[in-house]
Amino acid sequence: xxxxxxxxSAPLGAYVRGLDVDxxxxxxxxxLRRAFTDYGLLxxxxxxxxxxxxxxxxxxxxxxxPHPVPSVRHPDEPMLIVLAANEGKAAADDDPDADxxxxxxxxxxxxxxxxxPTRGALLQAVTLPKVGGNTAWIDRxxxxxxxxxxxxxxxxxxxxxxxxxxxxRAQGVAKQGEILFPDVVSQLVFDHPESGLPVLNLSPTAxxxxxxxxxxxxxxxxxxxxxxxxxxxxxxxxxWEKDDAIVWDxxxxxxxxxxxxxxxxxxxxxxxxxxxxxxxTYVTALEDA
Length: 289
What we know:
- It contains seven helices and 17 strands.
- It is of the alpha+beta class.
- Strands 1-2-3-14-6-16-4 form a seven-stranded mixed beta sheet, covered by helices on one side.
- The protein starts with a strand and ends with a helix.
């Protein structure tokens, strides 16, 4: 088996064609891991993965781990999570909200509210809506590189505060006041644990704010960085097709889902790649130190 890896026309990502998961060799696995490091995002075309095959392909990039929030896990396979607005059901024809857009998630990186954020994820389309349902990614290393030098220098040693409650209320998962994890403090810029490239560590939906500056200055800097980073011109936007699967580097990218009309079901299966790299520290640990 040989595979073809072709960069997208966007600032990140590459298409992978010709992959047969049941015929993986050590050479192909090494090729995929190198491409993952180089591109931060791999789009597998025409793979049509079973649950077992999704787990097998995920393990090429690292061990999988159950999502830290139990309510989103697949009922029969704890290493999978099910992403499905409206429980993956089509709205009734007489539903007045049938054309309401559901399943929208704004720009974010996953699990930034824990000390050891996940390494990445592999997402597969199970049921696609007739309209909408696109997903997009942005490369946070490229964002940092594009910042003016004086801004790079200013933010290099600043810290950012992340919140589980803020993150999951934004995604409609956590109830008001539900706390599964304490707030976590992370570097605003970190060097990628594998490539060493500098990464802007800003996940807007989970961030409470930048630390180490006067409140007004911190707020203005936060807004500037979010607007600079979350520019659609920087994004790879994926229009899902049958048998697509995508793996992304959560240390390096942000992603977003644009949603779809409620009348059309959309179901995605996702595996989560484990990590042993600590990028943050719980506030409670700092207070106890």
